[in-house]
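REVIEWER CHECKLIST
Item 1: Sequence provided? yes
Item 2: Single chain? yes
Item 3: Sequence as submitted:
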Amino acid sequence: MRLPESLNNITKKLFPGYFASVMATGIVSIASFLTGHKALSDFLFIAANVFYVILILGYLLRLALFRKETWTDMTNAAKVFGYFTFVAGSDVLATRYSLAGDYQAALWLGVVALIAWTLMNYFILTFMVFYNEQPITKALNGTWLLATVSAQSLSIVSLIGIHTLPTHRSLLILLSVSFWAFGVVIYLIFIALIIYRYFFHVTKPSDMTPPYWINMGAMAITTLAGAHLVLAAPTAPILTMLQPFMEGFTILLWVWGTWWIPFLFIVGFWKYVLDREPVRYDPALWSMVFPLGMYTTACDTMSKIPGLGLIHSFVTVGLWIAIASWFMVAVLFLVKNKSSERQQSPQKAMR
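Item 4: Structure as written out by the authors:
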């Protein structure tokens, strides 16, 4: 099967974490929906679905035509965690479908995400334990925290599944708590490694790629999942028992996630202003948009917990920063594509 040269190159080099575009678009759609911006939310919801379908086709095509390149990415400790974006992207879409009242679609997306998470989780664990030879300075980056993001997204979707499977309510609540707890443990392990990397190894501006925003984004989605469990506590004995712990820990995680935001902007200033690195499109930029949208959504949900209403004051500012960031990355994407078309036109004329 032969593809046009441009499509062939795109497919061959397809970024492992490109489903972050679905995550980013979906979460900004959710944040817009929760704050009453329905038209914008619907537009982004449609865009997220389009991205999702195109990327599934793209990755299947890559698997069929470029098995070597696919395997190389899957056995690269610095890249393989990017595939968790498929899990999180599926779950973010599932959440948005639930807001639209389509719980059946949400259920199927959640099932797909659960299967993918299980396969990837144990594949990555096996690879890292038995085959990885990369040192921590080359392998470790913000994408590792997608392991937490994917687990927390399954925690949220497990609660949503109760609408479709009410007879399995107890099981789904236990699953939700389990994924939340697992995600917290994985975060604590990986963030310790990341901070060790920051403090005790040379860090250059080029090392601080956009996925490091997931340092905050992983905490934002953990906060969101915890807030959903706290709000559901009156309906389930296990949640009632765990409520004091989950509520306190959720506030702690929100504070930690909020603390990261100024530092991440400082890193951006260092990278793009002081070091003068040009701002150009990179698929990893979607990993910067997602945490901003997720933080906004987490603040909106947390503010519904009695005594935490003040947190809602973060929502409006957070929403517009997330929206502006989404459109900025989208414009950079369009500019890059336009530039690529111009470069290819003279080449075609010479043939």
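Item 5: Key structural point noted by reviewer: The chain has one domain: 14-332.
Item 6: Recommendation: ____
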